[in-house]
Amino acid sequence: MKVLNVEDDPGIAASLQEGLERLGHVVEHTSSGIAAVDAATSFDLVLLDLGLPDLDGKDVCREVRKRSEVPNSARTTTS
Questions:
Q1: How far, in Å, CA of 50 to CA of 61, rounded?
Q2: Which of 13, 55, 58, 63 could, after both became Cys, cross-link 33 (CB 3.0–4.6 A)?
Q3: Which residues of 24-40 are buried (b: 16+ CB within 10 A; e: fewer)?
Q4: Of 7, 9, 62, which is closest to residue 37 (Cα–Cα)?
Q5: Which residues of the chain have pLDDT under 50?
Q6: Short-list 4, 9, 12, CA closest to 38
């Protein structure tokens, strides 16, 4: 499965990518909501951080839905 990992925290992004690749998935990463909207149609799944610096994750989800049926999973973390 080809997964787009949308995450602005480098540590979280690396951990997700490592785990998904270990399970055999092909993973690409972006920290930009705008880039995610543009690229989402090329993936089988989008893993989306809701707290992105350039575009709210909910807006990313809405824009992706307008363009594609690609499944997405939104998440957020707090410290």
A1: 9
A2: 55
A3: eeebeebbbbeebbebb
A4: 62
A5: none
A6: 4
